[in-house]
Structure formats: structure tokens, C-alpha cells
Amino acid sequence: MKEEKVFKDPVHKYIYVQDDIIWDLINTKEFQRLRRIRQLGTSYLTFHGAEHSRFSHSLGVYEVTRKIISQFERNQYEDWPKEERLLCLCAALLHDLGHGPFSHSIEKAFGTRHEDWSCRIVLGDTEVNEVLSRVSPEFPKQVAGVICKSYNKEIVISLVSSQLDADRMDYLLRDAYFTGVNYGMFDLERVLRVVRPYKGHIVVKESGMHAVEDYLMSRYQMYWQVYFHPVTRSAEILLNKIFQRAKHLYEEQYAFGFMVDPILHLIQNKLTLQDYLLLDESVMQTMLTFWSGEKDATLSDLCKRFLNRKLFKYSTFEELDQKVLARMEHVMNEMGLEPASYLEIDFPTGLSYDVYRPGESDDNFPILLLNHKDQLTEITHKSEIVRSISGIHRGKHHIYYPEELVEGLNTREYQDVWALLGSQD
Amino acid sequence: MKEEKVFKDPVHKYIYVQDDIIWDLINTKEFQRLRRIRQLGTSYLTFHGAEHSRFSHSLGVYEVTRKIISQFERNQYEDWPKEERLLCLCAALLHDLGHGPFSHSIEKAFGTRHEDWSCRIVLGDTEVNEVLSRVSPEFPKQVAGVICKSYNKEIVISLVSSQLDADRMDYLLRDAYFTGVNYGMFDLERVLRVVRPYKGHIVVKESGMHAVEDYLMSRYQMYWQVYFHPVTRSAEILLNKIFQRAKHLYEEQYAFGFMVDPILHLIQNKLTLQDYLLLDESVMQTMLTFWSGEKDATLSDLCKRFLNRKLFKYSTFEELDQKVLARMEHVMNEMGLEPASYLEIDFPTGLSYDVYRPGESDDNFPILLLNHKDQLTEITHKSEIVRSISGIHRGKHHIYYPEELVEGLNTREYQDVWALLGSQD
Amino acid sequence: MKEEKVFKDPVHKYIYVQDDIIWDLINTKEFQRLRRIRQLGTSYLTFHGAEHSRFSHSLGVYEVTRKIISQFERNQYEDWPKEERLLCLCAALLHDLGHGPFSHSIEKAFGTRHEDWSCRIVLGDTEVNEVLSRVSPEFPKQVAGVICKSYNKEIVISLVSSQLDADRMDYLLRDAYFTGVNYGMFDLERVLRVVRPYKGHIVVKESGMHAVEDYLMSRYQMYWQVYFHPVTRSAEILLNKIFQRAKHLYEEQYAFGFMVDPILHLIQNKLTLQDYLLLDESVMQTMLTFWSGEKDATLSDLCKRFLNRKLFKYSTFEELDQKVLARMEHVMNEMGLEPASYLEIDFPTGLSYDVYRPGESDDNFPILLLNHKDQLTEITHKSEIVRSISGIHRGKHHIYYPEELVEGLNTREYQDVWALLGSQD
Amino acid sequence: MKEEKVFKDPVHKYIYVQDDIIWDLINTKEFQRLRRIRQLGTSYLTFHGAEHSRFSHSLGVYEVTRKIISQFERNQYEDWPKEERLLCLCAALLHDLGHGPFSHSIEKAFGTRHEDWSCRIVLGDTEVNEVLSRVSPEFPKQVAGVICKSYNKEIVISLVSSQLDADRMDYLLRDAYFTGVNYGMFDLERVLRVVRPYKGHIVVKESGMHAVEDYLMSRYQMYWQVYFHPVTRSAEILLNKIFQRAKHLYEEQYAFGFMVDPILHLIQNKLTLQDYLLLDESVMQTMLTFWSGEKDATLSDLCKRFLNRKLFKYSTFEELDQKVLARMEHVMNEMGLEPASYLEIDFPTGLSYDVYRPGESDDNFPILLLNHKDQLTEITHKSEIVRSISGIHRGKHHIYYPEELVEGLNTREYQDVWALLGSQD
């Protein structure tokens, strides 16, 4: 590249592009599409600053990866496979390419997986594939391999996806910045200074353990304050209910007033790659806008709730008495609120984010400390702080329901239901 | 209100809501709609962080107003009319309520004015009107009066709209924060400390002049680095071309593959209030997505350019030789690029933002300094810095055109056209 | 006060003075003296930014206290005794008044206690006493009572000295700011929002527990990264050795080339209040400068080491073999390095800072959570994170010695000594 | 160097040391001495955060220089003389080595120049000289040449001393950080991106002019808000009066109760290099402490004023009526306040700082813009903003005097004096 190009970025100040291939990938239409998908899905309904896109996060992951590799090269670490640089950068940039609108809700409702779509875009008939193929005919497959974690060098994969990867480092900082939740900030430069390649792994100098503790504490704070926030979850549940209702109506051959092909094919479960690339948050939002005017009262009502942010309320509980639940559903039915569309019981185990728990998930490489005698130890064996975080399963059981249910309740007759709903935080 | 409520905000840390009316206004569907309209229109195509909404800016203007009033009350300034507090706060919160998607482009193409729509929403059959009417039957009119600058107390209007108003203070800080352009930051607390009410005006203590110089310099930097950025302008022009093409096709009774009522009524120039409230950036973006597949090649091509960020290039010029221009149009026609849809000459005077120029615009109250002898002086008479900014008309003349025009040009034959296009920054 | 006055402060932006008494206290010579005493003693030799004074910290503690009280008043909490406002503010401002230069080293060497000196200054014939007496004849005693924790209202004392007090809140933020160690930052506004007065205590709303976890994690990071840093400790030990040597020489009637009264009286253990007020870091530093030229080789050498930052090295150990230690002392004696002046074994229990450990120290009020049923719980019963921090005794045992000892060591003969010294971090 | 070393720095996050020579220079006693000299002299009496040392500033200048050179090397600019790297770094690190305590006051009172002392230390019998000589026997002379601006390559000198040099870039950021005056912040990375070597100069890409405007505006704000602050100036004047009084007493063979050699030699104007190296702010402060107890009432009184921050008041004036002045001196004499020690008339031209004024000072290289046609233009020809700053001579004439003068004045009889003193800001 003749001269390095930069993007102004609020998190990293500047993002430096030094390779033509990276520049060209950013300018493909598939990558530009990420501008139309929010990084945090429905979180903007809880934190109004959280309106940032997957486009900016993807640039950020690329930049963090570039900084790590640049430090490895500057220090001339022998365990760093220099020839993998471009592959790492491309995989970092593209790893979220397959994300669709409100991924968590859609994936749950229709069984899609964004990782699969990322690979389909990289390997399919796309501008991204065309650019990658210029490097070599095998290059797209290698990039897909890193994204899907089948590439044969752990060190390459773990830069992009591990317990201490460029993906998390960018999203923690970025989500903290845009939500304004500054206790999610950690000292990126300090972490970068203590990681290094070692025998096929990315490891952490043991004397730098505090820096990683700080990073994991930020993660812990972000998970409980932002990612698991029940209001965000409430909006996700509402979206999910809308999709379920639409599917149900479709199966009953309901005539939709507003419908476009990509959404129809999503409901029919026969999305093509071209359909998928048309699916962005604008299309979904527009669908909600016009379905608000549908004649099906339930669909219309659910969509209005989402648009106007009249979300479901929630209560926490430890154990759920099935009889109380049945009585609650009875009341709802009497009020014309079909439980299938208006009630949700949510266990935190179904959540898509994690806090640090080594060993639970086999594809997440744990964090290894390297001491001065060249011994590797998993961090929970050394850090009480990390151990305490790893052991915490603070996720609460929640029940979500419309606010008017509480208002309409005869509290004398339904004292048990009232007790369930009254236990708000 | 029983207990103050807060919103986490990245710019002001927290936004404090202390009145039920404010809380209820925020929860109306008309106010929630502002979440679906970006504060900076097409700027996100230049600065990828600029994805923040008018919702967050509106909360910010409210918060700055609240801080100013709270300082006035704490200092018990006699010239402050305490009874206007709630009116100021409501007007601050709602002043941008009528903004539509990509306002600058739409207003230019269809002759709408967001200030008018703000008043229509405040006065019409809306949730906002219902909430305001609870204060008193005249209250909605008073709020509309402040927004449209017809209210009879200058001091109330100037808190929301003047050369040193809560609107500008919030947007400069917010836009700087989200773009990452930190030279747009100024010290808000320092400015707040030097303003005070005085005989029906908001004035600045003369000894605090430096604080205002700092604010005006930030504004100057933001205008030239962000608001007037030619890439942003290029995207606005493209949108405008799309609307013009659609209007033209409509007049020729073209059968659109994708059309929804609010857009049809916009083109027909017969938007109702209910239509307008449905118009948000999602709908516009969705329109662009599906018009990309229209059979009209020009409309389809223009929409694809916007979506995939293949914007027009631009060149600067001092004077434009009409003969050269004619020859350029000739080449374009030969290449099948109709100049009406693919060429734009842009003079900076048509821009919607201003830098500080007292006296030029009659509805912008100038900045007055108050000295210890109770004399008022307009700031340009005291500050050489401000005088130098006020005198600058740095806006350049630009010509916008498709990149392939340059590539397709026979440079020997069209050396004059080449010279025009070659003078890039 | 006619108009509030401000100090520009890098940590809190502005410090607001709203009472004449506070303004006059700041302008006393005893308070101005705090400008000549560094907040972090010898830490500037580890973190070069840590040059800030106790003067700025004292203003900061005042400001945090003012913010807390102002929030209590704004919310009209009934459990807040409004009449104690000025007492709290004065005690907050003056609580560190008795600190001398390099307090930790001096207090250890000469058995002085800064709390006692604070009270002597408040109660003695000083400008501070004169200003306080203007409030009422008993006021100086009340202020001293709060500082020495004998005042009869826990809530007043705990604002200034408890596990979650204005003192700690300011110093964590300030020390993080000036050292540049930004992982010591926590969100002050967030903490302030969750504390409230309750039945004579300052408590924390249970739903705000995360905010306090964040604050305690910052504290944890600051303790291990800054306050317990072994290089800082090494400089403290060196100072202590210098004082011990000087005391020894004085007892042997050595004729000092440079001596001034306050230092002489310090060594003689007969400091008057007037002497003490003359003792600042400049005098101590000047003493070191001129003692560098003393004819006593040990005193001169130790002072040069401090001035030129040739500090003792350190090694960590788990257990200390007394035989190895004896052999090490033997080598030192042979090299002319008297162990009494050149060797120190340091156990972390003797350190002056603490991390959060409820119950260990009887004068530190623990952090209490208040739930919605008005029940109080000590935080370690609810937070695994805090429990994990409280249980950690990571302080290591260190041995400090001159670098040349290692160089001069015959490693074959003294392999055991070498092994002890080799175990550096 | 085996592995790069870092210093934690609040302004640049980390300072990276990559050469043994730099590391060894930092560890010399002459460089460590800079820890005992404040960067901003008496400014800490105006801004309590301004307690940072010349040590930290010197590291910062080194780091900015390192970043600039690293960018030049990364971009492989041909006009950059690579072989000058180490010379630039050493000169940057050492350029302030000769600063003494409260330089401005001392230099004015005794006619010393810190640049001369810097060169004497570099060339004399010092640890610094010893380290530099290891590079080559001529190296100390080359370093001194760059510091004294006699080296034969402008590009090397101008990195360290020019209108856009590493020295200013660090001190503006650092002084803004430590005072808390955040309007002195500018975007360092943005400026670094637009400078480049060109035909023996450091120039700025014309398209980056806004970045330099931003830097110059920060400078303008810092000069008027911080560097020229009249309270700081008042403290400098007081110090100067103290030195003059001491000189006068010495000439009259007064027997000082407290005196040490370096101060005596300073007064006698026969400082040796060894004396000078002992002179730091601690020694000066200690002198003030003990001179507060001198029997000469004037010396004692002046010293107490400084220590206890009872500074002279000031008034501004346009023109000074000599008769009024004479009457004022008459009153002062009657009150026992000798004008020579208690009165100062101050014209801003005598100040040691400048704002940007090309051509006025021949040793300050101006800022040159380089356009795409390789033409160089001095920035004031292109920027109205910079022109407006350059033309401003806002320095006011001040008269400084003790506060009690005003209180003791019979306002009826001395209405003219009162009028002079009454014109405060």
C-alpha cells in the first residue's frame, strides 16, 4: 500500500489500514452491510448510547489484532509465525460478517447461526470472496477455517476467539464507551504488553496477572450491568414473541398486509445467501412499523410495544410454583393476553454471553500464565479474584409479563400471583 | 416525583429526571420515535462512530438546560423568571421532535421543515400533546411557541435556541464524543459557570470570555472537520438525487416494485401527521434496499451506491467555466450517466449549519458580555479570536460526480475536464 | 458567603467553596503547609507523576464530602442530621492536617502519629484554631473529636473515616490520576448515588452493590500496583535507615555539618508544635542533600542513594533460613556494609495500608447494604467478589539489600545466599 | 537493549525506553535532580495540581520525539536523516537539564541562563557526560550543540526547539493535565500524523492545517489561562523581591541566621557546577522557611508571605500617572513598606513565554505548510485563526502591592491611588 490510511475511531483514536486487501474488504458491500446492524441488538432500549454498529466493532477487532501482531513483530518473538499475519487480520475483520439483525432473537426463533453465515459469505459468490481470492485460491477457505475454528494453528484462532481475544478486548471497550458504563474500561495497552506467543499459544506473563484480572473484572461488570440487563432481555423476548406469532400466522395462511421476500423466506426457513444479505435492522424495524397496523390484534399489539418501548415487566423468583403459574395464565387468558405471546420464563443458562469459566466450553481457550521458569498455569489456579468470578452464577430466574396484568389483578383473590410478581429488584 | 430517575449517558454521565411530566414525555411514542433517527444523518458514512440518535441528543439538551437552570436557582439570580422552569425543560426536550430521517436531504427535496413538524406534533392529536395538556390547557401552545421562537420571553427562547444555547452545547459535545473528533470538546462546566440571566437575556461575564472563545473554537473545528465534511455532503447529494429520480418516475407513472404509504405521500407532497410519524430512517433505508432491485436502472444504481457506500467523488474549484462543464456533461451522457442524476455543483452557502456570525441571521441571539460596570458588549467587539472566526467563509465550491467518469475519460481529448476534476484536496 | 468560590482541580474539575469558614481555613498557614508534603511520600520514585500534595488531597476530601451532603440534602433524607454539615466539612478538610514529611518512615522511626498532630494543630495556638473558634468556642474540640473518632455521632465520623469514606474516595481517584494507573479509577457519581444515611450509619442500597464492588476492586488494584509497590517500600526503608543512623550518631555525640532545630528536636524526641509545623519535605530533602556531604561514610552514602535513586534491590522469599541470613550478614560486614544500615527484612503485615477486611480493625466501620425490606447486611455476606478480596493476603516477604552485594558475591562459595537473592519477581 | 523498558506516565500512558544510553542517562544523578524542580515554578500556588517536575516533562519530550522519529522511520521518508536518531533522543531528554529552582525568578535576579547550565552539565565532569561519551568522544558536544542550537542540521534542532517541537507538545499536554485546565488539550496523534521531514525542515502537510490550528489555540488558551496568570506572576515577583533583599543584606554584611554554600555562592555570583547541582527547590524552600525567622523584618516578612501564600494583590492599568505612583510610594513608606521590596510594576513584554509570532524571534523556526505541489508557506499566510492569535498582545500592565496597603489607605485623601488600585479584573 502506498500510504497507510486511517479511520477516526472513538475507542482506538485511529484505525490504521496498511494492506490493500484490508482496504478492499472494508469496501465490499457485504462488509458495508454491517453498518446496518447494531452491535448490541436491543441494548439501545436500555442504554440509549448503545447505537453503534457491527461495522465499527469489526474495524476495532481488526485494529486490536494489528496492534498485538505489531508488538509481536517489534519484539521479534520467535514463537510468532510471521507468515500468518494477513490471515489473522482478515479473519479478525470478517469474523462477525454473518451477523444478522437482532441476532440473539432471530437465532433462537429460526435456528440460524451467524458463524455459519460468516463462512457462507466468505466462501460464496460475494465481493468478499473475490477480494480474498486475490491473495490465493485457498485463502478464502483459510479465513473461513479461522472463523469456524477448524484452522490447524491454535495460535491464529486464539487471537480472534479465545478467553483473551481481540474480539472481546474490542467489544468490552467499545460497549463501555457507547453505553457510558465506564467501569467496563480496562487498560488495553497494559494487557497488550503482557501477552506473547509461546509454543503455539497466546500466553500471559505471570507478572502481568493483575492486568488480566483487571480485564476480567471489567468483563464481569459489563456482563451484569449491560449484557444480562433484564430490560434488554425483555426486548429480546418481545422480538422473539413477534417472530413466533408471525410464524404461527403464516402456518395458518394469514394474509400479511406487509411482507417482503427476505422475511417471508426467513419464516419459511428457506433463506438464500442473497436474502440473508438483504436482512438488516432497517428491514426488521420497518416490518415492525407496518405490522403495527396488521389486523391480527396480537401481532399488531406486540409490534407496537416494541416500537414504543412498552416492554414487558419482569420479576425475579427462586422457585416457581406450577399452580401459581397456572392461575396466572388463567388470569391472562381472561384478560385476552394469550400466554404463548405474553408470558416468558427465563433461566439465565440460556444466555448467549459468558463470564470466565475455564473448561466449561471446549472451544474457548483458557488464559494461561507463563512464569520465569517457562511453566504454564491456568489463571484460576493463581488468582483468587478470577476464581471468585468464575464460580459465580448470579443469573437470576425472571418471569416477564405485560404491565397491565399487574394493574388488572384482583389482589385479594390472586395474592399468590401478586407475591410472584411483586418480587422486583 | 417521588425519587429522581436517571439515564446513563456517555456525554453527561447521568441525565437526571426530576419531574413526572418529563418522564412521561420521554415515554410517549412520538419521543421514542427519535431513537430511529440518527443525529447526524449521513455522517456515519464518514465517521463510523456517528451512529447516535436524536433521542440521545434530545435528552442531552434537556440535561444541559436543567443544569443551567439549577445553577441560576442555586445562585438565586433575581433576573431569572423561576416560573418558566418547566416550560424551558419541556421545550428543550422536544425542540427536535419534528426531525425526520436524513432531514437535510428530505427537507431540500420536498420542502418540509422540521420546526413546523415539531409544532404540529406538540399541538396535534398525539401522546405528547396529551401529556403537556396535563400541565394546563395552554401549555402545549407555550411549548410550541418556544420551539417556533414566537414565545414572548427572549430569555426562555434563548436557553434553547441562541448562539450559546443548550442545543449547541449538547450537540458539539455529543458529536465530538461519537465521531471521536475530540478537538470538538470544550469545558461545559466552565461555560456554565460564566453564563447568567440579565435583564431578559442570557449573558456571559466578561471575565469568562476565554471560556466562550474555547466553545466557539470547538464549534469552528467541528464545522470544518465534521459538519461540512465533503464525504458526508456527497452522501446527502446522492440521497437527494434518489428522491428526485423517484419523484420523476412517479410523475411518469412508473410502477414501483416496492412502495409504502408514507413514502408515496411524501412524493405526492401530501403527508399527514400520522404518515410523518411512520417515516424513520429504517423505512428510508428499507426503501433504498428494495429500490436497489427496481427495474429503472438509474434509481437502482443510485440506491446501490448509497447502500454499498460507492459515493460520488468530489473536486474543488474557484470558478467554473461553463464550456468545460458542458463538455463534461457531454461525456457523461455518452457514458449513460444522466447529469441530472449524476452531477452536482455545490456552493457552501446552501449549507444548513453556521459558524458564529452575529447579525447575519436575525433569529440567532448574539453572545453578549457583561462587564463589572453592567455594560453589555457583543463578543466580536472584545475578542480578536471570535472576530477571526466570524470573518471566515472557508466553504469551498465542490463538484460531485461518479468515480467511473474519471476512469472513462480520454485524458488527451478532455484535458480541460481532467483539470477540473483533478484538483482534489 | 456572597458568591461561591472555586478551585480548578484535575480530579473533580472544580472544588466549590460555599462557606467563609472553609475559605479562611484553606488560607491558614497550617493548611498551606500541606502544599509542601507529598500525598504519596516516596511513591514519586516509582511513579514519576505522583508528585501531588496533601493540600490537593485535602481539598478533594472536602469536595467529596460536600457532594455527599449535598445529595443527602437534595433528597431530603430524614436520617441525615442537617446541623452537622459544617462540622463534617471542616473535619474532612482538616483530617490530614497533622501529616508530616514522608509520614510512614518518620512515624516508624520516631513513633509519632499524624492523627495526634492533627488534633494538636486544631486545638493548639494556631490560625486554624482561631478560625474554627469563630463558629463557637466548642467547635475546635468537635472537629478534633471527629478526626480522632471520639465524636459521639458515628454518621459524622464515618463520612470522613470508614471503609467507604470521602478520604478513600478522593485518594483512590487522585492517586490513580497522578500516577497514571487508570485501573484505579472507579465511577464516583455512581457510588454517590447509592449511599444514604440510615439510622446513624452511612449505608449502601443493596441494588447498588455492583458500584461498591467496582470501588473495592479499584482499591485492590491500587494497593497491589501502587501502595505496596516494593520500589516505594525500598525508598521508605532507605529513609528509615538514614534516620536510624542519624539517631545513632547523635547518641554518639557526632558533630553534624548540617543541622536545623526541627530535625534536631525530632531526633531528640522533643518536637514542639512550632517545630513540627516547620518540618516539611523540603527541609527533609535539604537535610539529605547536605548530609550527602557528611564525613560519616554510612550516613553520607545512604543519603546519596536516596537522592540519586540508587535504591536497595529486593528479593522475595517464603521462609528464611537463619543460617543463610547469618552468612549473608557476614559477607556484608566483609564488604563494609553494616547490616543494621544496609539490610532489611520486610513482612507485609507491618504495612500501613489495608485492603477491605471487615472486623479486623475495630475503628473501620464496615460497608453495610440496605435492602428493600430495611435489612442491613455486611457486604461480604452478599458479594463473592468482595469476599475473595477480603481473604487475600498476597503481601510477600521481601529482603532488601544493596545491589553491589550481588555483584560482589562469590557465587560458588555463597550459593545459598545467591539462591535467596536470585528469587526476584 | 535486551527488552524495552517502560515508565508509567499519565500523559502518554507509557514512556518506552529502547536504548541503553537513554536508560543510563535517566539514572544519572544530574537527571534525577530534575525530580526536585517543579515544571511550572510558582504555578502550584495558582493551580494546586501543578506540582509536576521537570523530570516527568523531560521524559515526555523524549517520548514525543521518539514517536515522531518512529513515524518517520515507519513511513520511510527519504528526507529523514536516520543516523541522527540517537542524537535527537538524547538532546530531547536532556534539553532542560540545566533548569534550576524557580528558574524565571532566579534567572531574572541573578542573570543565569538555564540553557548555559544545560550545556555545562553535558560537557562538564558529570555522570551525564560520562554516559554520552560512551557513544563517541564527540557525542557530548553534539548534544550540547543541539541544545544550544549551534548544531549544523536544522531538522535535528527543530525537533527539540521550534514553533512545533516536542518540548511544547509535551508541556502543553502535561501542564493541561496537571493543572486540570483541559482546554489546553490538543490531539497529539493528529498532529504527529501531519508532520514530516522535508528538505532539512520539519513541515506540515497543508491538508493538516486544522490540526495545527487546534494545537496553536490550545497554546493560546494555556498562555492566557495558565502561564501568564497574574497570581503566578505575583508569586514570582515576591521571590524576586526576596532575592534582591538578600543580596542587599549580603552587600551590607548582614549576618544570616541560616545560610548554605550554594545560596551564598548564588548571591555572590560565583556558582560552581557542583554548587548549581545542589540547588533545587527543596533548598530554596528551606531557605524561605528559615529566613522567615530572620531578624531583618523585611526579609522575614517577604518569606512568610510566600510560604503562607499571602501574595501581593494586583491591579491592571493602561497608563501610569507618575504623580499618583509617587504618592502611592509615599503612603507605603509611611506604612513601613519599602517600595523597593513591596511594589512592582509589570509589563507583559518582559515575560518568558510567547504565543505564536513568526519572525519576531530569530531562533524559533516558524511553522511551514507543504502543499501537494511541494510549495512551502508560513502558516499565518493560510490561516486566519493563526493570524488572529499572532496579532494579539493582550498582556496587561499590572501593579503589584501588599493587600494591607488598600486597607490602610485613607480613601478620601488618596482617591487617585484608590482609583489605580481599584481597577481589578
Automatic annotation (TrEMBL), chains A, B, C, D:
Q: Which PANTHER family match?
A: DEOXYNUCLEOSIDE TRIPHOSPHATE TRIPHOSPHOHYDROLASE, DEOXYNUCLEOSIDE TRIPHOSPHATE TRIPHOSPHOHYDROLASE SAMHD1
**One Pfam family per UniProt:** HD
The cross-references to PROSITE patterns, in alphabetical order and at most eight, read:
HD
Residue span(s) of domain HD: 54-172
Which InterPro entries does UniProt cross-reference here? Answer: dGTPase-like (IPR050135), HD/PDEase_dom (IPR003607), HD_assoc_2 (IPR045509), HD_domain (IPR006674)
Q: What is the lineage of its organism?
A: Bacteria, Bacillati, Bacillota, Bacilli, Bacillales
Q: Which SMART domains match?
A: HDc
Please give the superkingdom of this protein's source: Bacteria
The identity of this protein, by name, is HD domain-containing protein
